[in-house]
Amino acid sequence: MGFLFMPLLLTASEYSELRAAYIKLLKGERVVSTTTAGKTIEYYRTAADISTIEKLLEQYEASAAGRGGTLMRVSFKDAT
Fold first, then answer.
1. Which of 3, 13, 43, 74 has the greatest number of C-beta atoms within 10 Å?
2. Does residue 39 carry a pLDDT above 60?
3. pLDDT score of 19
4. Torsion sign across C-alpha atoms 72, 32, 25, 64
Protein backbone atom coordinates (compact mmCIF):
# COMPACT_ATOMS: atom_id res chain seq x y z
CA MET A 1 0.00 0.00 0.00
CA GLY A 2 1.13 3.53 -0.60
CA PHE A 3 -0.11 7.05 -0.80
CA LEU A 4 -1.54 8.52 -3.98
CA PHE A 5 -1.95 12.29 -3.88
CA MET A 6 -4.54 14.23 -5.81
CA PRO A 7 -4.74 18.05 -5.72
CA LEU A 8 -8.23 18.18 -4.20
CA LEU A 9 -9.47 19.82 -1.02
CA LEU A 10 -9.52 17.80 2.16
CA THR A 11 -12.94 18.28 3.76
CA ALA A 12 -13.43 18.89 7.47
CA SER A 13 -14.86 15.40 7.91
CA GLU A 14 -11.93 13.82 6.04
CA TYR A 15 -9.56 15.84 8.21
CA SER A 16 -11.29 14.57 11.36
CA GLU A 17 -11.13 10.97 10.13
CA LEU A 18 -7.45 11.29 9.19
CA ARG A 19 -6.62 12.92 12.54
CA ALA A 20 -8.39 10.14 14.46
CA ALA A 21 -6.49 7.49 12.45
CA TYR A 22 -3.23 9.34 13.11
CA ILE A 23 -3.81 9.40 16.88
CA LYS A 24 -4.66 5.68 16.90
CA LEU A 25 -1.51 4.89 14.90
CA LEU A 26 0.64 6.84 17.34
CA LYS A 27 -0.89 4.84 20.19
CA GLY A 28 -0.04 1.63 18.35
CA GLU A 29 -3.68 0.74 17.70
CA ARG A 30 -4.91 -1.01 14.56
CA VAL A 31 -6.69 1.28 12.10
CA VAL A 32 -8.98 -0.14 9.43
CA SER A 33 -11.07 1.92 7.02
CA THR A 34 -13.48 1.16 4.19
CA THR A 35 -13.35 3.08 0.91
CA THR A 36 -16.43 4.30 -0.92
CA ALA A 37 -15.92 1.36 -3.28
CA GLY A 38 -16.26 -1.00 -0.31
CA LYS A 39 -12.60 -1.96 -0.15
CA THR A 40 -11.07 -2.44 3.29
CA ILE A 41 -7.81 -0.62 3.96
CA GLU A 42 -5.55 -1.19 6.95
CA TYR A 43 -3.23 1.63 7.96
CA TYR A 44 0.24 0.71 9.16
CA ARG A 45 2.45 2.60 11.56
CA THR A 46 5.51 3.28 9.45
CA ALA A 47 7.70 6.35 9.64
CA ALA A 48 6.83 7.27 6.04
CA ASP A 49 3.06 6.95 6.59
CA ILE A 50 3.17 8.89 9.88
CA SER A 51 5.25 11.65 8.27
CA THR A 52 2.90 11.89 5.29
CA ILE A 53 -0.20 12.06 7.51
CA GLU A 54 1.46 14.75 9.65
CA LYS A 55 2.14 16.85 6.55
CA LEU A 56 -1.47 16.52 5.36
CA LEU A 57 -2.80 17.53 8.77
CA GLU A 58 -0.42 20.50 8.94
CA GLN A 59 -1.45 21.67 5.47
CA TYR A 60 -5.13 21.52 6.39
CA GLU A 61 -4.56 23.31 9.69
CA ALA A 62 -2.49 26.02 7.99
CA SER A 63 -5.21 26.63 5.43
CA ALA A 64 -7.99 26.53 8.01
CA ALA A 65 -6.15 29.16 10.03
CA GLY A 66 -6.01 31.45 7.00
CA ARG A 67 -2.27 31.05 6.52
CA GLY A 68 -2.57 29.54 3.05
CA GLY A 69 -1.19 26.16 2.11
CA THR A 70 -2.03 23.54 -0.47
CA LEU A 71 -4.60 20.99 0.58
CA MET A 72 -4.62 17.48 -0.81
CA ARG A 73 -6.90 14.48 -0.55
CA VAL A 74 -5.12 11.24 0.27
CA SER A 75 -6.15 7.92 -1.22
CA PHE A 76 -4.60 4.55 -0.67
CA LYS A 77 -3.47 2.32 -3.49
CA ASP A 78 -2.48 -1.33 -3.24
CA ALA A 79 1.11 -2.10 -4.07
CA THR A 80 -0.02 -5.26 -5.86
1. 43
2. yes
3. 85
4. positive
pLDDT number for residue 36: 63
> Do residues 32 and 43 make contact, with C-beta atoms less than 8 angstroms apart?
yes
Helix or strand run (H / E) with residue 33? strand 31-34
Rounded Cα distance, 62 and 60, in Å: 5
Backbone angles phi, psi at 13, to 5 degrees: -70, -40
Per-state percent for the chain, helix, strand, coil, to nearest 5: 40, 20, 35
Cβ partners under 8 Å of residue 20, min gap 6: none
CA distance 65 to 16: 16
